[in-house]
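Case study 2.
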Amino acid sequence: MAVFGPDNKGGRPAGAKNKFARHVWEDLLKVWSDPAVEGGTMNRGTAALLTMFAEKPAEYVKVNVAVLPKDLIIESKMGEMSDEQLERMIEAVRRWEEEPDEPVTNEAEEGEDGEEDEEDKDDPAKSAA
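Prediction:
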């Protein structure tokens, strides 16, 4: 039981949470970096990601997006997009939420023959979609 004194008004000692978190990260890094197979060159982390990519691609994408800085995703592209482009993106996300295993396409940008419209080919935001 912790004794509360003038230097510690209550709770855990200063830095205890950071120390614990550092140890957890060190342990995760060790497990991640260990060889997946004795004598092999691939580590466990890479093997796990490749397995996830093959068996659960939607989960693989979620993991990758989860580790990206949130500001980078939002500010780098969305700030440059028109209202119409943002609306199309929102609709694509909604379709993906309904059918996460189906590839997301933007039918509005394709011509009747399934090809991109000529005017869209010069727009990097549209040709990257």
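The chain has six helices and no strands.
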